[in-house]
Structures are given as structure tokens and as C-alpha cells.
Amino acid sequence: MEPILQVENLTKQYPDFTLDHISFSVPRGTIVGLIGENGAGKSTTLKGILDLIRKDDGTVRLFGEELTEDRKDMKEDIGVVFDGIHFHESLTPAKIEKISAAAYKKWNTQTYHDYLKQFALPADKEIKTFSKGMKMKLSIAAALSHDPKLLILDEATSGLDPVMRDDILDVFLDFVQDENHSILMSSHITTDLEKVADYIAFLHNGKIIFDKEKDELIYRYGIIRCSSSQFEKLDKEDILACRKKDYQWDILVADREKAARRYKDFVIDNATIDDILLLYVKGDVLS
Ligand SMILES: Nc1ncnc2c1ncn2[C@@H]1O[C@H](COP(=O)(O)OP(=O)(O)OP(=O)(O)O)[C@@H](O)[C@H]1O
């Protein structure tokens, strides 16, 4: 079965930045987390997918069909939440409903009201009185209420407190229970992705460094902590990335159990997504 979203060679050139032939896919019924440092190209990737910027190269396929300028109808199947609200501040959730019901063929009033209730959002208050978290919740409620198949979220959980983030993550997990639904979400809150993502695509300097199953990263990758003399004994083929901090080396390896068998007296920790990102961004990448 083809993935819900397939991105091939997506390229965008700005004067000081190039999003460089990005390819990855979002399989059905999954959540893909897009990670990377500030300026890595995450928003540019999401905008390129949504045709909000002119691509210099590449194709984007939704359910196998190319998403082109003349297929704007396909965008109905995509729910979008970007950091920062795009509704006018004088609108209320009730007015947004009227506008959205006219704009989307599959708008579902009941779903929208259920989310307003679940997120404790007043229907008749102007958005300008809302906190950042309330605005984010409203964007999510609206995005989920026109029956999208794919949700594209750019930092959608930033600005929400941990309790509300947890609730929203449950909503996302619920959404992908339907195998014809998927989510592509960028986030700096990697612990959120550790909770919900099935795959992690890592962007660095406009290039995809890896696109892997989250469980492989969490359960197989490891970090060897060792001294300079121990470092010299390591087979460099085993090292993905490494970084020296004062007198200690942190070394990322793809298989911590294999490393533990090979390097018996070494300390080897589990790697978090943050650890992996830091080593790739701030360390030396060997393979
Ligand atoms: N309209 C534009 N014109 C010129 N350069 C741009 C434009 N939009 C983005 N860029 C550049 O593209 C690069 C990637 O930006 P992008 O917003 O995609 O990064 P990001 O990974 O989403 O970062 P952050 O985590 O800070 O949101 C940055 O160097 C940015 O300055």
C-alpha cells in the first residue's frame, strides 16, 4: 500500500540556505516526527509540501497522486497547524466555524464542538483574549474538524503545558488509529516525539541525515562514554558521531548491545532523541 505522503527530492533554494533534495515518506496510520536544529529547514519542508512556497525541484504525492497547483482540492485532505494562529484576532471560535463550514466540503460541526469542549475553549470569546495555548488548541480543533487524512503540524505542542500536551498527544494517537490517517509533525519537544512518533526524520543543514523507526533509535542506539585512551581503542567503523567534552568522549553507536559485547569495560548508555540530535549537530559525524 502506498504511503499517505511521499516526498521526493524536495528542493528549495534561498540566498543563504538550500533545502537539498529531501526525500521521505509518511506511511499510513503512523506519526512521523521531523526534528532538527533551528534553521535546519523543517518549516521550509512543510511549506514545500503544502505548496506555500515555490519548489525548485521535487515532487509531493498524497495517496500516490501528485499534489500540484491545479489539485487544490486535495488540500482538503490535509489539516494544518502552524506555530502562531492564522485566524484574525477579532474572530471567535463560533465565527471560525461559519467560515470553515463554508470553506470545507467535509466540515463536521459536531466534531468541532466536541473538540472545543474537550479543550475547554469558549465558543463566543474573541481570539485576542486567548492565551497562546488556547490559540494552539483552537487551531488543532479546526484542523481536525474537516475530516483530514493527513495532519501537518509545525511546533503544534509548543506553548502548551505538560498536562495539555499529554491530552493533545492522545488526540493525535487517536487520530492515527484509523490506518488511512497519518501525522507529520515537527517539534523541538523531542520527549513528545518519543511518546508518539513511529518514525523520526532528522534534518540538518537542509539535508535528511536519517529517517528511521523511533524504536530503533531508542532501543538500539547507544552512547559510549569513555576517556581519550579508550577512544583510541575503538574501531572507527562502529562510530556514527562523536564529541569530546572536557576529558570525556561521547560516542554514538547504532547497536549498543553489539558495542557492549565488543567493548566490555566501557560505559554505554541508552540514547535519547536529544542525545542523538546533539551528537550529529555538535559532534563529528563519521558515518
Ligand atoms: N522567505 C525566506 N527567504 C530567505 N530565507 C529563508 C526564508 N524562509 C526561510 N529561510 C531560511 O531558510 C532556513 C531554514 O528555515 P526554516 O524556517 O525552514 O528552519 P526550521 O528548521 O523550521 O527552524 P526553526 O526550528 O527555528 O523553526 C533558515 O536559514 C532561514 O533563514
From TrEMBL:
<keyword id="KW-0547">Nucleotide-binding</keyword>
<protein>
    <submittedName>
        <fullName>ABC transporter ATP-binding protein</fullName>
    </submittedName>
</protein>
<keyword id="KW-0067">ATP-binding</keyword>
<feature type="domain" description="ABC transporter">
    <location>
        <begin position="5"/>
        <end position="230"/>
    </location>
</feature>
<keyword id="KW-0813">Transport</keyword>
<dbReference type="InterPro" id="IPR027417">
    <property type="entry name" value="P-loop_NTPase"/>
</dbReference>
<dbReference type="InterPro" id="IPR017871">
    <property type="entry name" value="ABC_transporter-like_CS"/>
</dbReference>
<dbReference type="InterPro" id="IPR051782">
    <property type="entry name" value="ABC_Transporter_VariousFunc"/>
</dbReference>
<dbReference type="Pfam" id="PF00005">
    <property type="entry name" value="ABC_tran"/>
</dbReference>
<dbReference type="GO" id="GO:0005524">
    <property type="term" value="F:ATP binding"/>
</dbReference>
<dbReference type="InterPro" id="IPR003439">
    <property type="entry name" value="ABC_transporter-like_ATP-bd"/>
</dbReference>
<dbReference type="InterPro" id="IPR003593">
    <property type="entry name" value="AAA+_ATPase"/>
</dbReference>
